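> Could you send the DUF2179 domain-containing protein prediction when you get a chance?

Sure thing. Input:
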Amino acid sequence: MLMKEKIIDMAVITLGAIFVAVGLYYFLAPNEIAAGGISGLAIIINSYFPSIPMGILMIGMEIILFTAGILIIGPIFGGKTIYCSFMLSGIILFFEKVMPIQKPLSDDIFIQLVIGIILTGFGMSLAFNRNASTGGTDIIAKIINKYLKFNIGKSVLMADALITVFAIGTFGIEKGMYALVGLVMNSIIIDRFIEGFNMCKQITIISSEKEAIMEFIMKDLDRSATIYDAKGAFTEDEKTVIMTVVDTKQFIRLREFIKKIDKRAFITVQNVHEVLGEGFIEIA
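Output:
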């Protein structure tokens, strides 16, 4: 299971790097939109020294921050981040050599900004959700997230703000403002995607088939549950209330099971954006 989890981690992180690379190289860089990050700084430097490939610039700037990530966050995070960062730089180098782009894909900068930020934000959230990052200022964002407890999206915003200021000085106020809009969008998108990845369902059930339902939750779903006694306000009948937290797929299975055995059951469902503890995310 441990090896399977590592393989899944690497696959998800690689997919995240691909999304970031596509959004950066084909949508943001051609329009000189430096929406933060080492990639944004690479876009700025590349505008002054176009003979230096962006991929090389990114690799060079990552090395110092790798060390900080390993020392402060830990070797697992550091190792995954090194893999993701070099993968991202390598993919961009591949694009530059095999599928280069000479000019923006269209004259509409804003739509390219939106598409580029969605792609990069989704890719970054995939990496963050697997305890990694795409490197660069994302490492600083992870450190801010760890010690100051800001959401990771807000941490990215804080870490990248200075680069956006440099973008204004380099590319002018108009493209600098595009970069600022992109930075804010990126912060929001990362948080929303991560919330979606980790969303669970808190289920409250009142049913006459409580034993069968609890057995299904524990044996078939491999989850636990909390039970407590309650009294109906209208009937004053004694009831047993079952409360459990499951993911979306498990909720669908649980709902179908209850539907088969007790169509008169009473069920309430709440979306939960973060669950910490045994069986879910480890409490940091």
